[in-house]
Amino acid sequence: MARILLAEDEDVLRMLVLDTLEDEGYTIDEATDGDEAYQKIMSQHYDLVLLDYMMPGMTGIEVIEKVRRHPDKQHLKIMMLTAKSQQSDRERAEEIGANYFFSKPFSPLELIDVVGGILSDHPVD
Amino acid sequence: MIIQWINRKIGRQLMASFYIVLTTLMISSLIVYNYTDTKLQETRQKLEDIRDRSARAGALWEEWQDLQFNMRGYALIGDREIYQKMVDQRATIDEQTRWFEENAIYTQGKDYARSSRELYAYYFESILPLIESYVEAKETGTVDESFLRGTTLTSLPLGKELLASGRIKLDGAGNIDVLSEINKSELALGGYREFLEEWSETTSGQLEREIQTTQLIWLSNIVVLVGVLIFLIYPFIRRITAELLSLVKNSERLASGEDVSRVKIPDRTDEIGILAVSFNQMASSISDNKQHLLAKNEELQAQQEELQAQQEELQAQQQELEEALELTMRNEQHLQYRNDLTETLAAREALTAYPEIIEKLVTITDSEIGALVFVDEGAAYSIVTHGMTEELSEQLLGGDFSLLKRAESLKKAVHSSKQVASDHPLPYPYYMYETAVPILDPASEEIIAFIYLVRYRDQFTNEQMRDVMSFSRQLSLSLLRMRLFDEMNREKTKTERILDSIREAVIYIEPGKQEVFVNRPLYDLFPELQHGTTKTETLQGCLDTIRAVVDEPETFSRYVEGVLQGEVPKNSLQFSIRQQVVFIHFYVEPIEIDGMRKGTMLVLRDVTKETEMDRLKSELVSTVSHELRTPLSSIYGFTELMLNRDIDLSKQDRYLKTIHSETERLANLVNDFLDVQRMESGTQSYQKRPLDLRPLLEETTQFYAASTTKHTITFRSFNETGPWIEADEEKMKQLMNNLLNNAVKYSPSGGTIEVVLTADQHHVQFTVRDEGIGIPKTALAKLFEKFYRVDNSDSRKIGGTGLGLAICKEIVEGHDGEILVDSVERKGSLFTVKLPQMVTSHSAVSEMIDMSGK
């Protein structure tokens, strides 16, 4: 089954996403801030990374920027979970290398669909 | 030759005499010294010789004594060694005796030599062989005795033989008389020594005498020479002095005017001789000149008398000329004044020139005092005076001054004369002549001013009056112009004040003009321009100064360049100056009059506040949306999960609790916004009641301490009960919650949080200290502004609305207190709240305790 990294500093939101996706059978790894997320991405393989925008340590954008500098992380799928739905933030994130965006507040069922769609379009290796 | 050379100078003569005497003195001294020295040497040698002789005589005598002693020893012991010694002594004695025989000079010396020689013969030819034979007899045993006796010797064969030949003699006791021979020799020695001593004394005495004599001769030599010197030089000096004195006397006579035709010239070639000759020449030349001068003098006196006559004539002429000149100058002065006055009246700056105008009028008309009385709006008067008393000027202003009234009704010049009492202003009775000339507006024939002039003694002449009249016409024109100018100036000032009072900075430019008009706000915006009130500046200077502080000078220049070329840009320009400290909205307004473009107004509006507000607002929107979305997300998500899935009970419970707490969070957020809204609208009201602060702080602290594991949260108070304050309990809780919440939130790595409560007589103070990320120095000033959030990476990551501290400040100030912050970045922050302590009497306190008990 696919491995997903969830980087989110708000405990309740982390719990929500974790509960939602674990029930779907995904293996979920957690990170509570940007630095932890970066270290986990660099040391392990994930099929998808869910990244909050505002986090202590590095922000989500900073994490993507750093991760994309590594040649073997060019194709890692990254989805931003963000309350900041403003267009300018989105453009900036896209430019830097975020693949998908998911806006807060969100519906857990929709999240299951979106994650499932992303992962099934691209078979797990 | 040399004598002539010496005679030419007195100094040389003196020196020559001096040298001769000195040389003589030196030569005689040398001779005396040489003689004395030779004598001394000779005597010293002689004494040396005598001493030597005496020593030699003594030595010889000692040798004899020694020999006698040895001889006795030999006779007794018969030792060959002693014998040998005696043989050696014999040679010595022989040699010494011979020295005396050869070198003795006087009889005594020769006697001594002879006696020594006799003794020598006696001892070595008779006694020594006798002793030898005695020793021999002792050795052979012929004689045996321990002591030598003279008789034994004579009994020896040799003794007998010698006795027979008479070479030895016997004394009365039958012994050989050795002693007498020795004594003879000693006597000779004694005599000789005595003689030597005497000789030595004689020699020394002689030397002393000779030296004394020589010194005496030398001294007398000096005395003689000094005498000679005096004898030679005194007459020499006397002669010179006498000749000089005669010259001095003659000079004195010459000076006192006597005729000194001739002085006896001494037969000298030296200075005195020359002086005498020169003196003679001088005296004769003076006497010649004197006669010549006398003649000249008479001539001059005659000439002088003639000149005096001429001079008197000239003086008379000059006086005449001066009088004429003065008259001309007076006329000229008068003309000059008239000219000045005309110029002043024509000048643009005539506004300030009224005193000058009346002063000139007074001068030209030869008046004493004068005034310009203006008829202002509403028939009120104003006045400019010259030389006038306050009293008189007030009378003129009074409105019922008869002369002015007359002039006003007649509309032409009027005169009056009156006698004035002696006391004022001249000390005797005098007449005072007044004139008042009305100045008419040429258009309306209305009186706009009066010229009022006063003079004493004489009436005004016709000519003077003509002057005044002509000036009055000029004045009327000038006054009208001045009024116009005044009005314009007032209008201008009004416009300037209006421009200064608006908020926008303005630069007004006119095409082709380098000078621009700017208003006060421009100086406020750009203090570099340095003036401060409305003024004109050069366009270039203005633009350069502004450009120097603009953050993006290129954009600014491009915009201004277009405007200067006549464009009127549709869009305004927004730019910042001084590194974004001030934001400026810049636009252009063309100024048109009657459809004609007159100039362009550059308007600069300080929009820093607005810009800041915009920034804060957009920040608020994004912050609020973020803050709202998190709790909304969880509520939305968990309810959806619960609605769509079968969830076990424990999870359900957890979800519900989460939903509840997030809802609470939402509610708090909304409350914060409402508080801020109330703060802004000023409708916040406080339910103030006596409140014991201590339990409130303690409880809140305990609550937070229980909710965190990372932090250690403590409470300390220095009071057992109280302090009491008058406060809204809910608001105090909110204040405490906000401060503690911040302390926890901004210490992400934990640490100690300390709440301390203290109180003095009038104030209650509590502090909240954390060890968190702290606040940058630059942010401290704005910290309590609403929506303000510290803008750095640390704080960005920690969410917040920027309302908490603004609410805290509002609450504290609503309770007449103050809130302060102190912080060091990365070390922590300290928030201090000071509130006034409740004014309490004893009974009031117990009442409060009662109330809290309820």
Automatic annotation (TrEMBL), chain B:
Every HAMP domain range: 238-291
UniProt entry tagged with the keyword Iron-sulfur: no
SUPFAM superfamilies assigned: ATPase domain of HSP90 chaperone/DNA topoisomerase II/histidine kinase, GAF domain-like, HAMP domain-like, Homodimeric domain of signal transducing histidine kinase
Residues of the Histidine kinase domain: 623-839
Any one GO molecular-function label of the UniProt entry: ATP binding
Catalyzed reactions: ATP + protein L-histidine = ADP + protein N-phospho-L-histidine
Alphabetized PANTHER family for the sequence: HISTIDINE KINASE 1 (PTHR43711:SF1), TWO-COMPONENT HISTIDINE KINASE (PTHR43711)
Full protein name: histidine kinase
Organism: Exiguobacterium antarcticum
